[in-house]
Write a structure and sequence with these properties.
The protein is mostly beta strands and 119 residues long. The chain is built from no helices and eleven strands. The chain has strands at residues 3-7, 10-12, 18-25, 30-39, 46-51, 57-59, 67-72, 77-82, 91-101, 104-109, 113-117. Strand 9 (91-101) and strand 10 form a beta hairpin.
Length: 119
Amino acid sequence: QVRVAESGGGLVQPGGSLRLACLASGNIFSIHDMGWDRQAPGNQRELVATISSGGSANYAGSVKERFTISRDDAKKTMYLQMDNLKPEDTAVYYCYAYIMDPFGGRNYWGQGTQVTVSS
């Protein structure tokens, strides 16, 4: 059974940093594009950042220059380094990964991790 799971959320003051991790596990043949979304209360889910299997990264304009996405394929793990956090970054952060398993390929989503930026 393939699954992805986030970790690393929490409460941080404005200007602080957090690093989120997304671990893929199970019977995985290969991992392709990966990314992070977030959803704040009352808002639609929005894309935060994506990273291709080749390491090319893209960011939402609101987080560019503050967030860095990376991946370690040997560990089947993706990271989101978040610096200079702002109250408007408060949201549940979800990771996803396009994974090839014995049944084919599809996106797998985590359950989400809460990030709260507040003084």
